[in-house]
Amino acid sequence: MKPSLLTFINVFTVEPANQERLVELLTQVTNVSVRHAPGFISCALHRSLDGTKVTMYAQWRSKEDYEAMRGDPRPLPYLQEALTIAKFEPCMYEVVGTFEPAAE
Amino acid sequence: MKPSLLTFINVFTVEPANQERLVELLTQVTNVSVRHAPGFISCALHRSLDGTKVTMYAQWRSKEDYEAMRGDPRPLPYLQEALTIAKFEPCMYEVVGTFEPAAE
Fold it and tell me: Transmembrane segments in this chain: where (chains A, B) (predicted)?
């Protein structure tokens, strides 16, 4: 059986005045580190319309691949600045269902 | 300019003993109502590995389409049961970036 992908839905809570800066920092982290890591599959970065959240949705081959990336020192300056303006709530998931529009 | 899609990342917090039931209820809501709504594009349902969360990631054409679906009475029995076992935190987003693995 093919192992299922690991999905991270990481929610950052932020003051609306800092939302744009947080988006920049997470974009930089992804470009300097995450995209280059073995086992990284894809991710999408989201800005909440109310200004209070930024959420990264990311898929990885395995938890081991994700943890190996977390050992990379290059993104640390961006992450440290991010944590001065945001509260970070990470969570690991598996997909249990996907749904398309009904044919009617 | 083409308007961008609206993304909902709706996080439900639950006791681990109730996670499986919550997954069932949200699957039923999607099948009886959401999939049939005009403007629904796709969604994926996720179970956290620690048992404490269930998160629905959904894309819609517009906020108006989503709100029209919320007026449908068919999913209410499932949603009312879900709210007896879970805390619901909805959030509307726009995608600000997508990332693929770097070519190396």
Answer: none
Task: Band the pLDDT of B3: cuts 50, 70, 90.
Answer: low
**Strand-pair partners of B92:** B8
Inter-chain Cβ pairs, chain A and chain B, closer than 8 A: 115
The domain that contains B31 carries what CATH number? 3.30.70.100
CA pair distance B58, A51, nearest whole angstrom: 19
Eight-state DSSP code of residue A36: G
Q: What's the predicted TM-score (pTM) here? A: 0.93
Sign of the four-CA dihedral A11, B42, B28, B21: negative
- Residue B62 inside a domain? The answer is yes
Number of domains in chain B: 1
- Cβ <8 Å between B44 and A99: yes
Contact across the interface for B96 and A42, Cβ inside 8 Å:
no
Which residue range(s) make up the domain with A44? 6-93
Query: β-strand A6-14 against B86-89: which pairing, if any?
Result: unpaired
- Residue A104, domain member (yes or no): no
- SS3 category, B74: coil
Would you say residue A100 lies in a domain? no
**Tokens of residue B39, six digits:** 């403007």
B64 in contact with chain A, both atoms CB, cutoff 8 A: no
Rounded Cα–Cα distance for residues B74 and B76 (Å)? 6
Residue A101 lies in a domain: no
